[in-house]
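This section describes the prediction task in plain terms. A model, or a person checking by hand, is given the sequence of a single protein chain and must write out its three-dimensional structure as a string of tokens. No templates, partner chains or ligands are provided. The sample shown here is typical of the held-out split.
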Amino acid sequence: MRLHFIRHTRPDIARGVCYGQSDIPLAASFAEEAEDVRARLTERLEGCTPTRIYSSPLSRCRHLCEALGYEAPILDARLLELNFGEWELQRFDEITDPRLQLWYDDYLHVAPTGGESFTEQAARVADFIEELRDELAQNEDSSACEVLIFTHGGVLLSAGLWAGWYPLEEAFSHQSPYGAICTLEL
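The expected answer:
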């Protein structure tokens, strides 16, 4: 069973703006970026047809999914990006919340005001992976499963953490670029 986590392409938002669960449109370069993702995904699938398709509910993930020909994915909120709470859509250098420094000092465990910490995000992603693994193992020939999961950078980090590719403290040194594909073999 292979789970292919696919990060959305570049969003249309200024650098330095805090966004996570806000629904941000994709950049004007979307069509070109989507074709690049299509080529890499086709190669990764090695001629296999995906068994299931999942997506974050946010349009930047669903749009990529649909552009690649996968309509009506299963939407799952556990695939959302980190919730930045009250900081959403603010420039980081303009956030006056005193918790910002606490978050900078320990972003793995400290949640933005009204949001969630990275460890909380990682726990919900682990829950998604484990539930999917268990369900597919019971209902299908899991060795032949190819699952596509259209999602966000923080979810790719969380999936790699779940797979044991790196320790929690090193997770953010493994950030994936827009359009990245991260494959877990279970």
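For orientation: DSSP finds five helices and five strands in the chain.
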